[in-house]
Amino acid sequence: MDCKDLMIGDWFKSVDYNSPFRITAIYDDVVQTQADYQSEIDGNWYSEVEIKDLVPIELTEDILVKNGWRKESITIDGDYANWHGEIPISQAEDEYNYADIELRYAHQLQHLLRLCGIEKEIEL
Q1: 123 pLDDT more than 80
Q2: Other residues' Cβ atoms within 10 Å of the Cβ of residue 26
Q3: Are 68 and 48 in a shared domain?
Q4: 115's torsion region: left (phi>0), alpha (psi -120 to 50) or beta?
Q5: The dihedral of CA 116, 50, 67, 90: what is its sign?
Q6: Looking at the structure, do residues 108 and 92 belong to the same domain, yes or no?
């Protein structure tokens, strides 16, 4: 993973921590993160994670459903589905696609929504 592939607000995990976190700042080889729990100082908890230790969060049906997409199953020589939501997503078996762009991870969906000008906070 390269720092150019990241955006502030992206959801990730790290090799050391299984809990998801959001990126709040990006540097050359580390990102600053904000956890879901609060500190006594400013109400937030920040830490740093090396970019090489970032683990992308797999995009799943649960994440799509939790964020407002609905599935329309189609069976044509296999298992296909169309997901209707903020943007349409197609699914062939376990692969999600927007047009011909494969979406494997939650942060890729976040980037696509931002590039389309859609302000949506993704829930995990």
Answers
A1: yes
A2: 17
A3: no
A4: alpha
A5: positive
A6: yes
Query: What percentage of the chain carries pLDDT values higher than 70?
Result: 88
Strand partners, 82: 72, 90
pLDDT digits (tens, 9 = 90+) for 38-73: 555 555 667 889 999 999 999 999 999 999 999 998
Query: Tens of pLDDT along 69-94?
Result: 999 987 766 678 899 999 999 998 88
Cβ–Cβ < 8 Å for 122, 109: yes
If we measure between CA atoms, which residue out of 90, 12, 21 comes closest to residue 54? 12
Same-domain status, 65 and 110: yes
HSE value, Cβ hemisphere, 13 Å, CA-based, for 52? 1
Other CB atoms within 10 Å distance of the CB of residue 76 = 6
Question: Phi first, then psi: what are they for 108, rounded to 5°?
Answer: -70, -40
Residue 109's domain comprises: 61-115
Residues 13 and 39 in one domain: yes
Could you tell me if 69 and 30 lie in one domain? no
| Rg, C-alpha atoms of the chain | 16
